[in-house]
Amino acid sequence: MTHKLALIGFGNVGKEFVRLLRAKEARLREDYGIEWKLTGIASRRVGWIANPNGLDTEALLAGRCPECPAWAAPKNVREWLEEADPDVFFEATSLDRSAGQPAIDHLKAALESGAHAISANKGPIVHAYRELRDLARAKGRKFLFESTVMDGTPIFSMVPHSLPAVELRGFRGILNSTTNVVLTEMEKGLTLDEAVKKAQEIGVAETDPSDDLDGWDAAVKVAALVIVLMDVPIKLEEIERVGIRGISPEEVRAARAAGMRYKLVCRAERTPNGDHAEVRADARAEAPAGVRAGVRVGVRAGLRASVRPEQLPLSDPLALLEGTTSALRFDMDVFGLSIIEHKPGVIATAYGLLADFIRAVSGAPIS
């Protein structure tokens, strides 16, 4: 069967996804019976382009945007979806952590039009997961989002399908590449600004790295994991969030000399008897001197969640992570499980979209 695909967001991830689709075309056909054609693409640069007969992906990747057919170019997402008529929709726009828009509206429109909805954007998970999940179920479609945390690592699909009936009691990990690189470079003697510049030069940090340095990116990922895997509708403001700006190079190097390493650690744990998380008396004392004023402790009933710099001994596996490598340890009622994603690039995020595409159309049960 030939599936019609539509994609909003044609930056690095969107382009890599289309390249991966082309590279895996024979495998998709031979192993899964999946044929595809791209019938819609939208971005700030190309505008809204739709053609139900299929677009020239080679031209798109070469920067030669095809012209719209004879009809007027679509003016909004719903008109565009009507013209593109996709079976599967992909959302790969930039994150709006404050409200998750316009990605939420894009996904809702796609589901309402009868398409499976796949997202690489964390915002909709944090702000509208249950609404989108329930809408997908009502429409008999799938809402999938494996690329939102740890790129293509099967985190969200693993728990319901490979770990049925487990109780996830908590998790701990490192989920932000930029801070990992910056802290390592500070260990080598660079200032914070110099370390950020180095991270930007190697393509890890954004032009504006504020969301990484201030812990927002990691906090959004923690929220997504808690909401989906622990079934707790936590809000961002309920997560303790301390970034790394206040840690001096001297503190970083002193920790390393003492056999410790600073890492921005993500945590979530259920609290006994469902009680509210309490403000720990030692919370400010544990934080580095320069960041104590910013410590906030989560207050979601039954759960404590945090993103904060910690000194880890070199015997801790998280202390050994370098570069873009991420890791999560899940604490469950039956056993613990650690997952490490080694130095992923953009292709890993694109693979998450591809894997979700296969899951959406392969006939697997709707979760």
General description of the model:
The protein has 367 residues and is of the alpha/beta class. It is built from 14 helices and 12 strands. The chain has helices at residues 12-23, 25-32, 57-61, 77-84, 103-112, 123-139, 158-162, 177-187, 192-201, 210-213, 216-229, 249-257, 283-286, 346-361; strands spanning 2-8, 35-43, 47-50, 88-91, 116-119, 143-144, 168-174, 240-241, 260-270, 303-313, 326-332, 336-341. The strands form 2 sheets. The protein has a 6-stranded mixed beta sheet, with helices on both faces. The protein has a 6-stranded mixed beta sheet with strand order 8-10-9-7-11-12. The chain is globular and about 65 Å long. Residues 276-286 and 290-296 have low confidence and may be disordered.
Comma- or semicolon-separated keywords:
single chain, 367 residues, alpha/beta, six-stranded mixed sheet, 14 helices
